[in-house]
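Methods — Computational structure assignment.
A single polypeptide chain was analysed. Its primary sequence is given first, followed by the predicted tertiary structure written as structure tokens.
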Amino acid sequence: MTKDSPSFKDDLDTVKFICKEFWNIIFKKQIDNLRTNHQGTYVLQDNRFLLLTQISCSKQYLEEAPKFLAYTCGLIKGALSNLGISCTVSAEVPVMPTCELLLVYIVLVKNVSITPSPSLGGCGCIKLWS
């Protein structure tokens, strides 16, 4: 991706880029499954996650496996941040060597005004406009 590339039209396009291009560059394969609720939450699933394929599938290691995903969560969060998207990224391992990454976008609201409201005892009243 270069500065001359067209920007993404929406969040879903950006996540698709992460699933196809970014994941392929880092792990030499695309994400196996992408799910969304179309409200800023995305679940990326890799059924044979490279960093987990060399670990035993026993229950003992299943409990420790999420520790191996912290670096990957940071990679995705950093990539999205550089694309102008703020989000939280968490991971879980339902079954070895499958990993699921949960992306939750932090919606930034522009043009927010907070003013004291006498009817609320001086508490702030939030007004939004576009």
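Note: The radius of gyration is 19 Å.
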